[in-house]
Amino acid sequence: MTSPKIIIDTNIVSYTMRGGPLAEMYSQHLQGKLVSISFITVGELYFGVEKARWGEKKRKQLETTLRNFVVIPYDHDIARCYGRIVAGRERKGHPISCADAWIAACAVRHGVPLLTHNAKDFDVIADLHVITEQEEAKS
To answer: At what angle do helices 98-110 and 39-52 cross, to 10 degrees?
Structure first.
């Protein structure tokens, strides 16, 4: 049985905003779902805005896009999952970025699949169900 909910990684939000082949490839996973993003994804997107020095029109497009998602806020259970993931007992030798660990912790905490194009960033995390269309990660 597939989950009625899904959390999407920052790259999927970016693909959705840009459109094109990657957006089309991942759209099948979003149809009929309650689509969520982590509070960290919101921060990563605003970092991208600042780094690229977007103008007002593009900033408003981002804010409009963000309204289409449920934003998962921080809570203590997510922080506990984050600590376990970063400690890496199950990841042995597979480092993870701080942002990816928070995103994974949101998905694990809520028992919701994570849709990403960077599946290798989330390797070997217990209780994390990753969905991807990236061929090398699917084999």
So the answer is: 150
For 10-115, strand residue ranges (E) read: 34-38, 70-72, 114-115
pTM for the predicted model, two decimal places = 0.91
Residue range 103-118: mean pLDDT, rounded: 97
Number of domains in the chain: 1
Dihedrals φ, ψ of 117, to 5°?
-95, -5
Residue 71 lies in a domain: yes
**How far apart, in whole angstroms, are the C-alpha atoms of residue 8 and residue 26?**
10
Q: Using the CB atoms, write b or e for 22-52: b if 16+ within 10 Å.
A: beeebeebbeebebbbbebbbebbeeebeee
Q: Which of 102, 134, 98, 96 is nearest to 115 (CA)?
A: 134
